[in-house]
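Continued from yesterday's entry.
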Amino acid sequence: MAVLWRIFREIFSTFWQFSYHLVVAIFNTFVPARFRQKDVAGEIVLITGAGSGIGRLMALRFAALGCSVVLWDINNSNNEETANQIREQGGQTTTYTCDVSDRRQINETVEKVKRHVGDVDILINNAGVVSGKLLTECSDDDIIKTMEVNIMSHFWTVKSFLPSMVERNRGHIVTISSATAFVASSHLVDYCTSKSAAFGFNNALKEELRILGKDGVHTTCVCPSVINTGMFDGFKIRYPWIIPYLEPEYTADKVVEAVRTNQQILILPRIVYGVPFLSWILPGKCLTVLLQMLGSDECMENFKGREKKNI
């Protein structure tokens, strides 16, 4: 009898919690984000890959919200340009030149940040690279570089800054993954793999924090499609009216909004939310036919990548 009562209580508790969170999610869907955003003024935000693209734009937006922004980038001149733009708008920032593919450099830079700036409140792992080559054409160094920048660096930065967040039960970790985590493409085997790993990293970290009872430390995983920053120059979307190229300003706005509303996953554009669902319910070849119709076979034919193009 005791066993049946315990099972009944567990089922009831599960049903109640499930219903509660479902109602909250539905409520949040219809309440404009501006009414649900937390105040981040005074917080320390660290952004990797802050010298260009959405890294720079996110830095400008967090600085405008009153954050002290720590900028990491391998390109010192680009990083300083971001810092200058922040200072021109009256923001507070500190720059560090760091190659996030080098664990030693990460660890050394982490110590400088802790010593000179303090404990990081919001960590945004944004730095990324793409080779755009067939797997058989990728050198071993290409593959290692992709994995080191796009996923291994997340381990080293999070391991370094998470302990203080856990101790204070306050913080936010943002993982910039990609829609390629669940929509694969030719010429992107190493890239898709690294972004799938980043997606899994975020999910496992979120679960680990839940089990630790650290409900004040939040995670957000961002999965955008192609952002018009230059990183994917030459990438072709056959029907941009179905899956449009993302404007960097819009993307940066949505990431900042996701952080301020503690949104756990952000997929852009919204139509891509349906892809994981379709991949689970459709036979594999049916999904392949749909992706072929959308141009997956030819999207990388004219890929050039970034050519020193900055925002």
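--- second protein ---
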Amino acid sequence: GWQYQMGIYQKELHKQGITQSMSRKGNCLDNAVMENWFGIMKTEFFYQKKFDDVQSFKTELKEYIHYYNHDRIKQKLKGLSPVQYRTQSDLLPINWTP
């Protein structure tokens, strides 16, 4: 991760309005969830298609992310999509209010 500490990289992030997030040194488990998601996304979406241009890629990626969150079911989530699983009323604490 040394490249993420370089001034030129940090300036470019700032110029793009991106806030950098870095965890403690040497903890690869912090990346595990995103690495898993990128693997799934590449297998199910990216490697399956050819894109005419960057804009079509962006549009289709937004559609895939919506599908992944709202329609794609997972066994680990009791056969529900991530949004369905997280919005179940029985998972919310009794005192919880949105």
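Residues 54-70 form the longest helix (17 residues). The chain is about 45% helix and 0% strand. Will compare against the first tomorrow.
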